[in-house]
Amino acid sequence: MTATPTSAPGLAPAAAADPAYRGRPGAGTTVALFAACYNDTVWPGTPISTVKVLERLGVRVVFPRKQTCCGQIFTNTGYAAEAIPLVRGFVDTFAAFDYVVAPSGSCVGAVREQHHQLAERSGDAGLVREVAAVVPHVYDISEFLVDVLKVTDVGAYFPHRVTYHPTCHSLRVAQVGDRPQQLLRAVRGITVVELPNATECCGFGGTFSVKNPDMSISMASDKARHVRETGAEVLVAGDNMCLMNIGGVLKRQRAGVRIMHLAEILASTEEDPA
Amino acid sequence: MSAVGPVQQTSPTFVGMPKFPYAARSALGNTQQRRNLAHATGVIRAKRAKVVAEVPRWEELRQAGADAKDEVLGHLADYLVQAEEALTRGGAVVHWARDAAEANRIVVDLVKAVGTGEVVKVKSMATQEIELNEALEAEGIHAWETDLAELIVQLGHDRPSHILVPAIHRNRSEIREIFRREMGLVGRPAPDDLTDEPRRLAEAARLHLREKFLRAKVAISGANFLVAETGTLVVVESEGNGRMCLTLPETLISVVGIEKVLPTWQDLGTFLQLLPRSSTGERMNPYTSMWSGVHAGDGPQNVHVVLIDNGRTHVLADPVGREALRCIRCSACLNTCPVYERAGGHAYGSVYPGPIGSILNPQLRGTASEVDRSLPFASTLCGACFEACPMRIDIPKLLVHLRAKVVDAKGRNTAEGRAMAAGAWLFADARRLEKAQKGSVLAGKVLGNRQPPPLPGAMGMWLGARDIPDLPAQTFRQWWNARGSGSTGGQS
């Protein structure tokens, strides 16, 4: 199906008809949402929140349905051959868009760092070219908001004490820098407290947590301890798999700390609180 | 690509090591070691961060170091011949060793020719790698380690657990016990009133070692660098024990990995800025010794250099993996690694532990053993090591590269291989994913906010320590479809 500008697929009809929509930072911009397979399945609240934030800013959001997975779990477990068709799928799905936005530093990092390596491994020169063409258009939600729309205040309201864990892949692979903190600090009502040893890994590491369970638990326990030291009621990050790991420990401890993706806090408003 | 050159033999000490997860499980239970390691790596990390931040063009310096090493690795044979010619011109004798056995045989014969029953040693990873001390002892030759930490390890009948600070897993009260118990058995005993004050411990070591320095006829060292242009060997150190070894005995034998070559004297300047800041967190190390052959009447008069391959050409044959040969053994990756900090060095089954060990050992030794096969997986791929590496070795990329090699060698007819194939099939078509998601939604409805029942195996361990999230009643796709704008996804 081909979308036309007037049909504004993905936009709630009311929002599309809102005249105020035209003056917003995202007016005239179309974004293809890459939800990430695990968000789609287990944490739909995160891509839903991403849609809400983007639409609030006037962006037209589309969701190409044939998307599945960036392939990272296969690549990082040593199954490069299995990941290559997913790289093909990714470029086929997203090649037509100027902006591909994902609520995941890890998946964005995998697309940026690994897709060209996998394409080269496949020996398919066409795929190498296609990957090179798509990758510069792929953004983590924090990058898209700060760098493309040039906003830090997205109109969010969240009157709670939060601490932010910079996930390893958002920090060191996607390299989102302090954009998530800029966005969080601009949220009305929020209290952001510093997480001790923030840049240390939580011990998830995909299949690492299964292959090296004792080490993974040791690291996750330390991270959970640091979260509790902050007295925050919410732990926020840009990757739900890391949050599942740390949050799994916090939940087991009945620690009174809930986990939230950055996009969910940014989507929260007085009228529609998270 | 098939192996070029010999693959390193796993040395007797490490044969039969269990795979990393099992060794790490024991190490995680060693509370004293955990405390010692967390403290020591934390201190070094902070020192490194401070002195690296002082250098305005650190990233350019890293790139210059990586470029110099890549130049060497791209033309290794040429630079080695150039180095050999320069060393020979300076009066040194150059020996070539394919593997540990050849290198050990050469050194043993050289020591025997001098007619001495003991040697003093400068701290050296290459001689640890080839287990030279054990080879010398087997021939009745005592090898005395003179680096303070190596002395602690040797007296404690222990193994090094860190490249730079091999006794990092020991604290000072443990060291005091080792000195009191062991020093007297091999030389000057520790004083009866020895305390665990660092000053007193260092003094005991100084007195114990002094008589060995003055007596020794042969010293054995490694080298941090070998400048091809000038035939200059370089050793950097903190304690001055190396300087004693390198200047007092008549005969000096240096065992040097073939990847230690630098093209020019100018390049050395880059590395002398990168290495101390990355390793000890100092602006400059206290002692830098350089020698280019023999100088009449000054220092050792018989200078030998044993250049060892021992698996390095095997690493070089892999155009992706060879980046690991840039390593200058600074240990920054160990100090920054959350896995190393908790496991310590012994769990890696090699004298090269930590992130660099996880990419070097499976390449130097191949992946025939349990421990070497498990090392590429002993990382969360958090990337802290790459960030710290002064040689810009992309350790996470190499780990992933080696994981694929392990899987390809093992084959895919395993539970994991079948699970991965099923996942790849599922993700090959979004319609399959959507069907599968109906199952997860159903499971969510059945479980509600309850946790799943206890499971066996790896997933059971996961759930043993953590709760899992409640599964949603609706996937994102279902929400999107239900929004009712009449469109289900624009360009599809």
How do the helices and strands line up, and which of them pair or pack?
The complex is a heterodimer of chains A (274) and B (492).
Chain A lengths: L12 H5 L12 E4 L3 H5 L3 H12 L3 E3 L9 H6 L2 H15 L5 E3 L2 H18 L2 H10 L3 E3 H8 L12 E4 L3 H6 L5 H7 L5 E3 L14 H4 L1 H17 L4 E4 L2 H13 L5 E4 H6 L7
Parallel strand pairs in A: 1-2, 1-3, 3-4, 5-6, 5-7, 7-8
Chain B lengths: L19 H9 L2 H23 L4 H17 L1 H14 L3 E5 L2 H15 L3 E4 L3 H5 L2 H7 L3 E4 L2 H8 L16 H15 L11 H18 L2 E4 L3 E3 L4 E6 L3 H7 L3 E7 L3 E2 L2 H15 L7 E5 L10 E7 L3 H5 L15 H5 L1 H6 L10 H11 L5 H5 L9 H5 L6 H16 L4 H13 L2 H18 L9 H9 L10 H7 L10
Helix pairs in contact in B: 3-12, 9-10, 16-19
Description:
The complex is a heterodimer of chains A (274) and B (492). With 274 residues, chain A is an alpha/beta fold. Chain A folds into 2 domains: 13-148, Glutathione S-transferase Yfyf (Class Pi), Chain A, domain 2 (Up-down Bundle), CATH 1.20.1050; 161-267, Rossmann fold. Chain A is built from 14 helices and 8 strands. Chain A has helices at residues 13-17, 37-41, 45-56, 72-77, 80-94, 105-122, 125-134, 141-148, 168-173, 179-185, 208-211, 213-229, 240-252, 262-267; strands at 30-33, 60-62, 100-102, 138-140, 161-164, 191-193, 234-237, 258-261. In chain A, α8 (141-148) crosses α10. The model of chain A is unreliable at 1-15 (pLDDT under 50). Chain B is built from 23 helices and 10 strands. Chain B has 492 residues and is of the alpha/beta class. Chain B has helices at 20-28, 31-53, 58-74, 76-89, 100-114, 125-129, 132-138, 148-155, 172-186, 198-215, 241-247, 265-279, 312-316, 332-336, 338-343, 354-364, 370-374, 384-388, 395-410, 415-427, 430-447, 457-465, 476-482, and strands at residues 93-97, 118-121, 142-145, 218-221, 225-227, 232-237, 251-257, 261-262, 287-291, 302-308. In chain B, α3 crosses α12 (265-279) and α16 (354-364) packs across α19. Chain B is globular. Chain B folds into 2 domains: 14-313, Rossmann fold (3-Layer(aba) Sandwich); 434-482, no CATH class. The interface between A and B is large, with 83 and 70 residues.
